[in-house]
Structures are given as C-alpha cells and as structure tokens.
Design brief:
With 427 residues, this protein is of the alpha/beta class. The protein is 37% helix and 22% strand. The protein has 13 helices and 18 strands. The strands form 5 sheets. A 5-stranded parallel sheet has the order 2-1-3-4-5, with helices on both faces. A 5-stranded mixed beta barrel has the order 14-15-16-18-17. The chain has a 3-stranded parallel sheet with strand order 6-9-10. The radius of gyration is 22 Å and the shape is globular. It binds 5'-deoxyadenosine and iron/sulfur cluster. 5'-deoxyadenosine binds next to strand 12.
Length: 427
C-alpha cells in the first residue's frame, strides 16, 4: 500500500509529517509521490497566514476527484488549519476519512488504528514492516506549542501551550536518527530556545545545555535548531553554539519589525536595540555566522516611518536571507481586532521594497563566498552527476562530481553563484 504526504507550512509541520509517515509505515504504507498510485493521501495543513490555509484547502478540494476514482482510498487531514477549521473542513470536504488537529498529534496513532480497523473489510490489514528512514537531514521535535502571545500569531491557538519533551527521549531520538544515517539534525520548537524540561540533571538546565548534550551524542555531525526567540539568546546559548564545533554557523532569528512601536504592539518582548545587541554578541563569538530572519510588513498602524525603521534595521543587520511577509489578519488573534489596517496596495509596495533590499543583501553575501572553501553536506542526488546540498551557513550549493553519494560531507571551493545557489567544486 502506498501513502502520499503533502505538507504545507513550517519545519515543525514537516517533522510532524515525518512522524505520522513513520506510524503509517508501521501499518504497511510505503511512501509515494504519485497520486494515482496512492492508497492514502495525508494532507498536513498550515494556517499561519490566510494564503497558507487557502492553499491547503484548495489541495483538499481537488482530492474530491481522487476520492471518486479511489473510493477505498483514505483522505487524512492534519495540522494547524485542521485544528482551526475542523468543523468547516468536515462540512466542505465530506470525503475526508480522518481529521486530526495540531493539538492532537499525539493521538494520531490511535486515530489511525481506529480508522484502519473500521476500514478492515475494504482495505487489507497491512503487514508490519520495519521503518527505514534514510534521510540525511532529520528533524527532532524538542517542544510543542508556544507560551508567547504575539498579537498577530495564530500558533498558540492551534498548537497550545509549551510542552517539553524529556531530555533522555530527545537524546535517544537523536541517537536513533544518527543510527539510521542522519548527518544533520535539526532541533525543532516554536520558540526552541525557551526549552526548559521539568526533570533535569542539574538546576538551570536549559536549551544551551541540551544543545551541548545533543552534540555529545556519538555519531552526530551537524546540528542546527529552529526557531530561536531573540529574548532567549543568552550568553550561555551563544557559548554553547561557539564551543560546540558541530553546531552550524547559522541562525534563523525572526525580527518581525525594526520599529519599537510595532514590536510593542506585536508583543514581541524585545526592542530593536535588544535584537541588534544580540546579533552583535553572536557575531563577536562566531564571526562568520550566517543570519536569516522573518519580517512582517503592514501590521495594523504601521506608518511609513515605522517601515523605514524596518529598512534601516535590515541595512544594519545585513542578513544572509530574509522571509518577508505581508501581514495577514488571523481570526481570533489580538491584532485582527486592531483598527488602522494598512491598505493592500501599501503592504504590497512595502514588501516589494523590502524584498529588493534583502535580495541585494543576499546576493552580496553570496558573492563574498566565491573563492572560499566550504563544507557541504550532500543531500540530494538526481542521478545526473549534479549533487545538491547545503553549506554550514545554510547556503544551498550544487556540485558536479563522479563519485559522491548522499550523506557525504565534503570540502568544496565556491566558484560562482546563480539565484541564491552556490556553485562549488570539490577540492
Ligand atoms: N501575518 C503575516 N505573517 C505572519 N507570520 C506569523 N503570523 C503572521 C501573520 N498573521 C510570519 C512571522 C513568523 C513566520 C513563521 O510567519 O514572520 O515568524
Ligand atoms: Fe507551522 Fe505555524 Fe503554520 Fe502551524 S501555523 S504549520 S506552526 S507555521
């Protein structure tokens, strides 16, 4: 039996999809990318912005035809939009067989059993097969949910309060993934560096300690984490990053805005100055660290002067890359009630201006890498002699070679760049 997984949204969702895929594999479903060949389709949805939910909903809408052609096929819908719009989805898409919201992900195996046992007559009960994940890059969730209350964000509503996975469980999971061939491990959490387990081997055990412990797991090679919150960028964490050579020289540190007024209205719990000082401390400790960020334009009440503050922050911060979003009001969030909406045209003009700046910054950063030697992890092999992977600074890179294989960690010289991808040559 074959399972197709379609994931929308963030790394957290991709990690959840992996986890659900593993449960389904244990029930005999092998992965496929071909809709026609699939016996089950799992759609893991996102609702962070209206467009994200819309994309997931139109994908589910298209499955009506698939279900008609595959009446015994399973349609499973999970994730954040499933949490927020469960009843609406059930009504709009009556052919959904199983719907599990993001808060209930722990219940997925049980729900799956339930649905498979009711399907037993039409669907042969699968053999138990061992899982054989072989991805070179693997995600390990260390916490779920979010205790923040950023006024624009729907995540706390759909994923709930923070729950920390126990240290031993995380370390065992990392060891397991390494045993399966993982070369790069990403530790995941909505605000990953607020990790604070209830049972710890010493007082004040926090994310910085966990990071060091993960590095000490035998066989780990590269470690990353996403997404840290600027408020918890402690000296202890920076020390842990700089003193563990396995931690890649890259951080994704969402700033959202350069205006203190907007940051306050967003309830981000830091000022522009605090963010910039954090960046300075990081760069002092890890001079070649690559920094990426998230930025929202057009938050309610954002004036042109506020937006200029974002532009100057971007200029000062000199990011390697930035994800720039137009503000999207989410039902039930505090900012959805705020007046002073910024007109669509202005949002669009601002995001374009911002993208022009962040793109040119990125291009400049990439150009500086030409001629340098970088470590590249080979993550993708299309079989045409061209391999793709990432540098430690998270730059995508391509390499031509006869004798590389997935999972190789190689030293390569950067020879050029093409639309945010580095071209590299083995040395
Ligand atoms: N509108 C626009 N962007 C948003 N993000 C989160 N919520 C919204 C929203 N309502 C962005 C933030 C966050 C990223 C994952 O998505 O920049 O860091
Ligand atoms: Fe991830 Fe947030 Fe989207 Fe949920 S709503 S998938 S947590 S980005």
């Amino acid at each position: 039996m074959k399972l197709l997984i379609k994931t929308f949204g963030c790394q957290m969702n991709f990690a959840d999809s992996d986890e659900m895929g593993r449960h389904m594999k244990e029930r005999g479903f092998q992965p496929t990318e071909n809709e026609e060949a699939a016996d089950a389709i799992l759609v893991n949805t996102c609702t962070v912005r209206d467009l994200a939910e819309h994309k997931a909903a139109s994908f589910i809408g298209r499955l009506k035809e698939w279900k008609m052609a595959h009446p015994q096929g399973l349609v499973i819908v999970t994730g954040c939009a499933a949490e927020r719009s469960k009843d609406e989805f059930k009504k709009r898409f009556p052919y959904i067989d199983l719907i599990v919201g993001a808060k209930d992900i722990e219940q997925f195996p049980k729900e799956l059993e339930r649905i498979l046992s009711t399907q037993e007559e039409s669907l042969p009960l699968p053999e138990l097969t061992p899982t054989t994940p072989n991805a070179v890059v693997q995600y390990v969730t260390i916490m779920r949910g979010c205790n923040y209350n950023c006024s624009y964000c729907i995540v706390p509503a759909v994923r709930g309060r923070e729950i920390y996975l126990p240290i031993e469980k995380i370390l065992a999971e990392v060891a397991d993934r390494v045993g399966q061939g993982a070369k790069e491990i990403w530790l995941l959490g909505q605000t990953v560096n607020s990790y604070k387990p209830s049972h710890a081997p010493k007082p004040h055990y926090d994310f910085a300690d966990l990071l060091s412990d993960v590095c000490a797991v035998p066989g780990t090679q590269r470690i990353r984490f996403i997404s840290p919150h600027p408020y918890y960028l402690t000296d202890k964490l920076i020390d842990s990053m700089s003193s563990n050579p396995k931690v890649c020289e890259h951080i994704h540190l969402p700033v959202q805005s350069g205006s203190d007024d907007m940051l306050r209205k967003m309830k981000r719990n830091y000022t522009r100055d605090l963010y910039m000082r954090g960046l300075e401390r990081l760069r002092r400790a890890i001079p070649n660290i690559a920094v990426s960020t998230d930025i929202i334009v057009g938050f309610p009440g954002e004036t042109n002067a506020d937006f200029q503050q974002t532009l100057t922050l971007v200029q000062e911060a000199n990011f390697d890359s930035a994800y720039c979003f137009q503000y999207s009001p989410r039902p039930g969030t505090a900012s959805a009630e705020m007046k002073e909406e910024v007109p669509e045209m202005i949002k669009e003009a601002r995001v374009n201006e911002l993208l022009a700046l962040t793109d040119s910054q990125g291009t400049g950063k990439a150009a500086k890498l030409i001629g340098t030697v970088q470590e590249i992890l080979v993550e993708d092999d299309k079989g045409d002699g061209v391999f793709r992977g990432k540098t430690r600074g998270a730059w995508r890179a391509r390499l031509k070679s006869e004798n590389l294989k997935l999972g190789d960690l190689v030293q390569a010289r950067i020879t050029g760049t093409h639309s945010r991808e580095l071209h590299a040559e083995l040395i």
